Amino acid sequence: MYVLGIESTCDETGAAIVKDGRKILSNVVASSADIHVRYGGVFPELASRRHLEAIMPVVEEALEKASLLPEQIDLIAVAKGPGLIGSLLVGLQFAKGLSLAWNKPWIGVNHVEAHLYAAMMQAPEPISFPALGLVLSGGHTLLLKINAVGDYERIGTTVDDAIGEAFDKVATLLKLPYPGGPHVEALAKLGNPKAFPLTAGKVKKSPLDFSFSGLKTSVLYAMKGQNATEDRHLTDQEKRDLAASFQETALCDILDKAKLAAKMFPCRSIFLGGGVCNNERLRTLFAREFPHHNVHFPTFELTLDNGAMIAGLGYEKFLNNPVSSPFDLEAMTRIPIA
Q: For the whole model, what pTM was predicted?
């Protein structure tokens, strides 16, 4: 079964062809990050316009790289949310148009769930459930119990900033380019993670929930003093140490809560998805602290927003319920996964 997956939830326009939910025949992504650098974050209107320009070319390229014609596609899958409303509308309406033009069924899927499925696509079959799932991205920080594909129980989430958002904000404080996560990670590799005594946030009565706002503020105080009014002119090495201290504190907080969550049920596997999962230090920590679990990370291409994860999840959803989505399905800026 050949599935065309379309992704347009934020600033990446993605299209991919996936066979039987796992074999990626093509995976094309056009990013608009270059136009958002000057704003230090995604400018929603400009992202939408770039999607309009890119979506037809990326779909055509995905078909060409997979050596397939439109009539050979069996299903069209598209991210219906969560995400930026303008960006979502471009992908969703385009998928509906293709469904009508090609006379093919289509299905809208949850972008966050697709990030988890990205790690499952390359895991050995059959997948052992129940499993622990972590979604770590610019917009989401989630701990989930996975009973099966499509069956999740939320264990923990963030009460303020998402982990990727915290990395981006700290990057801004350190005067690093957008997107900030990779730049903070690169700086942290040169620093001492114990140089600054930072602590992770705690949520009263919710030990598995996250709070990164206080940690971000601690970085601000380290740079500008307790009144946050004057630049303390940190040396280059102090900035490296501060980046390392922030990263280690944030990632160890995720690790510690994952360890607690894994003890709540007979956890057999751990699946991680989202852009932050490309962080090398995160992967090292999980490999070291979970030696007796099967820990699955997506490849780099699948950690970021992409059409392949949408196509793979769309296949699974359609296999369980082979019904095309209704054409009045609307874009959803927020969708609870559990």
A: 0.93
